[in-house]
Amino acid sequence: MNKNDPFSKFDGVGKPLLVDPFGRDITYLRVSVTDRCDFRCVYCMSENMNFLPKADLLSLEELDRLCSAFVARGVRKLRLTGGEPLVRRGIMTLVSSLSRHLEAGDLDELTLTTNGSQLAKYAAELKAAGIKRINVSLDTLDPDKFRTVTRWGSLKQVLDGIDAAQAAGLKIKINTVALKGVNEDEFPQLIEWAHGRGMDLTLIEVMPLGETGEGRIDQYLPLSIIRARLAERYSLTDIDHRTGGPARYVRIDETGGLLGFITPLTHNFCESCNRVRVTCTGTLYMCLGQEDAADLRRPLRASESNELLNTAIDEAIGRKPKGHDFIIDRRHKRPALARHMSMTGG
Ligand SMILES: C[S@@+](CC[C@H](N)C(=O)[O-])C[C@H]1O[C@@H](n2cnc3c(N)ncnc32)[C@H](O)[C@@H]1O
Ligand code: SF4
Known about the structure:
11 helices, alpha/beta, 346 residues, 18% strand, 12-stranded mixed β-sheet, binds S-adenosylmethionine, binds iron/sulfur cluster, 14 strands, globular
């Protein structure tokens, strides 16, 4: 935040913006509001997860203060994630409170990524709080497979949630993790179902995060193979719909809908990366694929003013790496990173 620093950048009204050493503007913050979840997806968690003690979690007020500090530094998009964000007690208090930044014009978008299990309960409230679009994770439309993949989830509950969200006027994007031998024959059906309901769909490659009790190489299905198979069936037109993230999109001419491919194991998205992630304990990760992190909870709790917090954020953004270090192959049986996806929320 030093006006003489070459990396310092200010907006029209003198707001100090976050720019990393590679000149990338940090405008997107993803916040994991809990590490807990009502599912135990096989690629994300082990069945017997040890969750954090409640005292380690940021309170809803602290989460609000942290998010608001980033908004004051130029973040324009906030995504709440988890764990499952909608199982955090009092989550709507946080959502409603953060929506003031939408009303003030300081935030372009407030959104969330959810497994959909609690949507029937919260859809109307989310819409009323100014949320327009959400991502719902769904890997299969087969109830038995759904139970196998999520270990604890019910497909019907999620489909009811999706119905409720659409009825409330929320726009939905479906996220599907591509799993070898599990849903690989189901993509045409998932695409036609999602596009038939006006929802775009994004396929995600499995990332090597955290021990889950399952082998990654057994789950890993390269999206290049899926794309080639889909191209035999549909006309895919590349479109220039960039989000600053790892997704690349095609339009499927037959359905009119968009299909995204998230290939985190390639490096083709790092140069445009505009995002950082905060865990529910206030740890800031500058890259999903690196261990380096900064503790924001201590400066947040150390004083009521945001000076220490802003210094910690500046130092951390100054260390944002150029790219990630993911690898899945037979020589690397262990996860590339020890932490689970439920810590940083994807
Ligand atoms: C960690 S979840 C958190 C939000 C919410 N519980 C949900 O499932 O949407 C966010 C996204 O990460 C994806 N995910 C979890 N573990 C993953 C892994 N190892 N590789 C790729 N994607 C993963 C999930 O499928 C989901 O779409
Ligand atoms: S992917 Fe989402 S729903 Fe599945 S276990 Fe992880 S946090 Fe829970």
